[in-house]
# Entry
Amino acid sequence: MATSAFLRAANQPPPLERYDLFSQDRALVDAVRREGAAEREDECAAFGRACGGEPLELGRLANEHPPRLRAFDRFGERIDEVEFHPAWHELLRLGVEAGLHAAPWSDHADGAHVSRAARFMLLAQAEAGVGCPLSMTYAAVPALRLDDELTATWEPSLVGRTYEPGLRPIAEKAGALVGMSLTEREGGSDVRRNETRAEPLADGGYALTGEKWFCSAPMCDGFLVLAQAPAGLTCFVLPRVLADGTRNGFHIRRLKDKLGNRSNASAEIELRDAWAERLGEEGRGIATIIEMVVHTRLDCALGSTALMRRAVAEATHHAAHRVAFGRALAEQPLHLNVLADLCLDSEAATMTAIRLARAVEDGDDAFRRLATTVSKYAICKTTPVLVGEALECIGGNGYVEESVLPRLFRESPLNSLWEGAGNVNALDLWRAVTREPESVEALLAEIGLAQGGDARLDAAVTRLESELADDADREYRARRVAELAAICLQASLLVRHAPHAVADAYCATRLGTAGGKAYGTLPRDVDCAAIVERHRPRLEE
Ligand SMILES: Cc1cc2nc3c(=O)[nH]c(=O)nc-3n(C[C@H](O)[C@H](O)[C@H](O)COP(=O)(O)OP(=O)(O)OC[C@H]3O[C@@H](n4cnc5c(N)ncnc54)[C@H](O)[C@@H]3O)c2cc1C
# Structure
């Protein structure tokens, strides 16, 4: 073990830094190869090395120095700008230059979306907040493509790899980012309650007036916004700066004081006759924005998977170096049981998230729609529990800010809330069953590829099929069925592609009855040491 005499004396592990976040994640490397991005492995490894260096420290700085609102300039004029620490800009620059925002939509080489997904997970391990504008920009492109003119105006700057902060007209920017502002005080899940009004203008645009209660990354160059037009709830594209260089009627009231995600700004905003262009038909706002939401749901799954991976990396690394009662923690049977149990969920989420990115790559919309929704639900629900347990694996130091676990823990509930809170995501399952039966067939077909590989999975699929066919008390049962669907998909991927020890332990505990409520309750015959060794990152010599 490469610890110095001093560190050995203090019985403290060396800090987990200056290593390749990609190559040291076997589950991720395997998934990237399998899902069609083997040719891009070097790109992922280079980015993994980059993220395992300075960005780890930049992530700390960006969170310890959160953004501040600058509502007015020194002459008392409204400017509605947000001031970020330089570390935030460096991290966002890293993401944009790596093409983690919208670049894959203009990259026609194989594996663009899969490589982007893997690298998004690597950056999110260094700092999760910048994922918000990167993700919204990624997701906006397929929605904007409904309209040729808006695509011509926005897409060139959205897919460009130049990070260009600062508010200027879109035509003058080589690189731009976009956000999404739906939620109002009246309702976030039920956006039909939106009260923001959209009045048609003579120039073909609309004037938007109202309040938005949550608007993250308000420094973005444009926003997809929902508002009530004469024919009903409609989607709009709203630029921060108008073509003539004047600021649009977009005013920031205050920034939210959030539990986590502190590097990123989330604002309450007021729209006053803000000029916007319609995207999609009047009255079809929800149908239009859903294209964006499905892609941000993918990034919620990727982001939560990344949090779990960072937590597992820290916990397994710590256990290899910390001694208690005369043995390394990694040699203590009960601690190994806990660690291996954590690794199972991390590996299952990694495989699933990268498989979902492959579905974007392949244009496999039927599979993507439902599989993304149920996986986002299940992965994001697992994350806070896993991160909390990983924190405990590090002992008292895990509860201390410098260990990074507190930041991961504060971040961990967010992806479940975003893009459809847990219940709303789970309920979407029934929407798919009723309106997109082909997405249920596609999900069952993918799960069925493992048929005969594990009897517990086969039995669970039979249960899932009968749950899906049961019309009674659908709303009440939505979480149970969404969870079962997601676990069946994860198990199917593991049975087909993971080491036997991983797949067997997962099926025994997540589908069978061998596990307990807390982590560390794996049955006796599991090869915990092999599982933990697969997931433990090694520091470079
Ligand atoms: C940090 C942060 C950043 C955000 N950034 C943005 C942003 O950039 N843009 C944006 O538009 N929004 C943003 N949001 C808002 C977020 O999308 C909403 O908070 C979320 O959609 C939930 O809406 P709500 O807060 O109105 O809660 P509600 O809709 O009131 O939901 C409250 C609870 O009720 C449950 N619920 C709702 N309907 C049902 C139902 N039919 N059946 C069963 N249960 C139900 C929900 O699951 C939830 O648990 C952000 C939120 C946070 C925390």
